[in-house]
């Protein structure tokens, strides 16, 4: 196709490929399969990633973890002969939008407490650390969080007609809808929680609101099925009087930057639960951290660095490591059906997708397809992390409910280390 439609570009690529392969012959004499794997034009395909690595000045992994994966897995052959090209410079966000504009009351409190130096040098936020143990300051921070939750609740009522209780914990997952980001894991946990409440209607539980926001790529059919699933679960959960409003599920319409500016300052929990090794960096995790939400997440992307900066006691890490995930893929022995058949909690949550409540709220064919693919495919390893995820979320809820001062202290440490 390139040869016919872009003949001049193709001829340039041929010459680039010739020069590259000459270097590869010198580096790996006689290793034809290895050279073919690294070539720009090989096996009737144009390998654009190889073109990029071979002729770029630098190759950036956009987080420490992803940098290591590029060097030792994705482009290990190139790293062996061009190690000087590879870097890991972590992605970032602008505090001008995601703190100063989105959360002006918190910005004013920071100015009042540590001066305005942080506005030009975010490392200055470390001056906030002593205030994490100052009860009066912690109360001011808590009041700002409450006001942000009330403001967001009013906004969503005006725009979507949904009533939120700002005294509930706001558990938020907003990002592009993709299977590796595992919105599916989050909604399966919500289903499990709902089932538990149905079996134990008198259960004393701290109320929680689960907030989702996402868009799917135009042709990404399965991602659209997951959006439909979340909305179907919301229909069931939000309209069931027997659970007494202890959980609520919200899917935000038309997720966008201006909406994120209102939502992120109101969040208590930040969901960063991608399959370990699949998220290059993530930047939503940084926006939530900067606004004093605590992360529940895998050791993936910039979560690794957030954990290092804030300390393991101030983030809720769960699940497999990237090495474990890669090993499962390499071994080729992961069978989702074994987890489904061997764990009653997982089985109940998945079977709920095709139960009578869901079929009344959703589309049978769509739900049946998701049910089948979870059991027989689960390419992004949702099921092995399910129970660890449930345990960590319950620990976060316990900390939030039973030790509010300790929770806010964790939030302030996260802000202080966000620079």
What does the model show?
This protein is about 55% helix and about 10% strand. With about 425 residues, the protein is α/β, with parallel strands linked by helices. The strands form three sheets. It has a six-stranded parallel sheet, with helices on both faces. It has a two-stranded antiparallel sheet with strand order 1-2. A two-stranded parallel sheet has the order 3-4. β5 (about 170-175), α10 (about 185-200) and β6 (about 210-215) form a beta-alpha-beta unit. α10 packs parallel to α11, α10 (about 185-200) crosses α17 (about 345-350) and α16 packs across α17. The longest helix has 26 residues, at about 135-160. The model has no long low-confidence stretch (mean pLDDT about 95).
| Poorly predicted runs | none
| Overall helicity | 55-70%
Q: Biggest sheet, open or closed, and with what strands and sense?
A: 6 strands, parallel
- Strand order across the biggest sheet? 7-6-5-8-9-10
For this structure, the quaternary state is: single chain
Radius of gyration (Å): 24 Å
Distance between the termini: 47 Å
**Fraction in beta strands:** 5-15%
């Amino acid at each position: 196709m390139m040869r016919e439609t872009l003949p001049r570009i193709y001829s340039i690529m041929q010459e680039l490929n010739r020069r590259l392969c000459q270097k590869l012959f010198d580096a790996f004499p006689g290793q034809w399969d290895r050279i073919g794997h690294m070539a720009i034009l090989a096996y009737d395909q144009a390998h654009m990633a190889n073109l990029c690595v071979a002729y770029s000045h630098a190759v950036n992994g956009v987080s420490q973890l992803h940098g290591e994966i590029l060097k030792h897995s994705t482009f290990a052959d190139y790293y062996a002969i061009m190690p000087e090209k590879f870097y890991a410079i972590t992605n970032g966000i602008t505090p001008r939008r995601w703190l100063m504009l989105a959360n002006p009351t918190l910005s004013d409190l920071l100015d009042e407490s540590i001066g305005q130096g942080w506005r030009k040098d975010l490392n200055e936020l470390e001056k906030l650390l002593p205030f994490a143990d100052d009860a009066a300051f912690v109360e001011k921070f808590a009041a700002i969080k409450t006001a942000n939750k009330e403001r967001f609740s009013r906004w969503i009522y005006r725009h979507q007609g949904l009533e939120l209780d700002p005294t509930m914990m706001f558990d938020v997952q907003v990002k592009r809808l993709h299977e590796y980001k595992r919105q599916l894991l989050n909604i399966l946990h919500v289903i499990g929680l709902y089932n538990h409440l149905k079996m134990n209607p008198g259960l004393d539980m701290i109320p929680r609101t689960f907030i989702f926001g996402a868009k799917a790529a135009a042709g990404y059919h399965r991602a659209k099925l997951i959006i439909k699933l979340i909305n179907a679960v919301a229909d069931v959960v939000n309209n069931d009087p027997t659970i007494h409003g202890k959980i609520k599920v919200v899917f935000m319409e038309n997720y966008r930057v201006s909406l994120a500016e209102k939502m992120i300052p109101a969040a208590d929990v930040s969901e960063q639960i991608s399959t370990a090794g699949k998220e290059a960096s993530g930047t939503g995790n940084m926006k939530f951290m900067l606004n004093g939400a605590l992360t529940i997440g895998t050791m993936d992307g910039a979560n690794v660095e957030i954990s290092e900066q804030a300390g393991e006691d101030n983030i809720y890490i769960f699940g497999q490591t990237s090495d474990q995930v890669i090993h499962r893929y390499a071994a080729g022995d992961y069978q989702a059906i074994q987890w489904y058949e061997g764990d009653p909690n997982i089985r109940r949550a998945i079977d709920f997708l095709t139960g009578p409540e869901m079929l009344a709220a959703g589309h049978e064919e769509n739900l049946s397809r998701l049910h089948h693919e979870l059991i027989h495919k689960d390419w992004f390893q949702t099921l092995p992390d399910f129970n660890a995820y449930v345990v960590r979320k319950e620990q976060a809820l316990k900390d939030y409910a039973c030790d509010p001062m300790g929770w806010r202290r964790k939030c302030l440490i996260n802000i202080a280390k966000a620079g």
